């Protein structure tokens, strides 16, 4: 059983942004805090396809009742995803990010927060260029000219209005940083989850259900606070975060890249009208990517290699010198169709597989 956690780490490294080995050993400390050894063993036999306990038990020669009980316990601990259909619960393996880390919202304590921070600093924040980011950036609504035609998947308000079930949760990244006494002071209850993801959060008491009007009001507050809209990196997202460059792991990692724009599925970037710019620097304060500087004439300029198209600079410009414009076609990048499409494309880019190691070894 001493080898179970290295096996689990290797399995998690197959999914999403991976779970690479840390030389310090903090990766295994995280897994030991989250999973018991029997839970780790069961996780190794799960795939990312939803499966009911009877099927899992039959396939892995386990007792059906014990399997059902353990899967439900793991779902409550945020270690597997659970979806209920017509009274039956189905379960699936999940990545560490986005997945079990975010699902620790109610179980996050200072020791775990420190472990994750150490792990992120040692491994994650330097490797973003190796995979497709799990989140994408879309512009704040008030930054887009009313005459521009915006695709629904690039419109935060349209995304919210298209969802039948919406829940709102605290931001896991700011929760973690608050425990480490490094909080940014930005609003906390800002993470939207939709559909089956909302049901999972509600069942696990990590969120509260809201209607469209409250969701849109929260969205407006996020824009006022200078938060970046980041839905899941797919056309039909199961959730949407509102992020700051101080706490968000994705934005922190993007900031370390020389050309963050190349990693973000967004068709917009900011543009400056030099005739209107007064050099007030408000746009520089709002920019999360350090993409705006003043030139020798004290006029703002946009580094399009760094601009991720969030639009926060546009909504803060008192001279209305900034606007969002559509990138040249060769610079545009479309988001994947679905969550599974994202996982498959990420696995292809990283040279990994979504098939559980236990299945490939048989």
Brief overview, please?
The chain is α+β, with helices and mostly antiparallel strands.
Structure description:
The protein has helices spanning 4-12, 26-34, 37-44, 53-60, 64-76, 96-100, 110-122, 156-161, 172-179, 195-203, 212-224, 249-255, 282-286, 312-316, 339-350, 357-360; strands spanning 80-85, 88-93, 166-170, 189-194, 207-210, 228-231, 239-243, 268-272, 292-294, 300-302, 322-326. With 362 residues, it is α+β, with helices and mostly antiparallel strands. It folds into three domains: 4-123 and 345-360, Winged helix-like DNA-binding domain superfamily/Winged helix DNA-binding domain (Arc Repressor Mutant, subunit A), CATH 1.10.10; 133-254, no CATH class; 260-331, Alpha-Beta Plaits (2-Layer Sandwich). Strands 5-3-4-7-6 form a five-stranded antiparallel beta sheet. It has a two-stranded antiparallel ribbon with strand order 1-2. Helix 2 (26-34) runs antiparallel to helix 7.
Q: Largest sheet at a glance?
A: 5 strands, antiparallel
State the distance separating the first and last CA atoms: 19 Å
CATH classification class of the largest domain: Mainly Alpha
Proportion of residues in helical segments: 25-40%
Mean residue pLDDT:
92
| Overall outline | globular
Per DSSP E runs of 2 or more residues, the count of β-strands stands at 11
Strand order of the main beta sheet, please? 5-3-4-7-6
Number of helices: 16
Tell me the domain tally: 3
Rounded to an integer in angstroms, the radius of gyration calculated over CA atoms is: 21 Å
Strand content: 5-15%
Backbone structural class: alpha+beta
What is the CATH architecture term of the largest domain?
Answer: Orthogonal Bundle
Runs in which pLDDT lies below 50 for 5 or more consecutive residues are: none
Write down the secondary-structure element order: HHHHHEEHHHEHEHEHEEHEHEEHEHH
CATH T-level fold name of the largest domain: Arc Repressor Mutant, subunit A
Assigned CATH superfamily of the largest domain? Winged helix-like DNA-binding domain superfamily/Winged helix DNA-binding domain
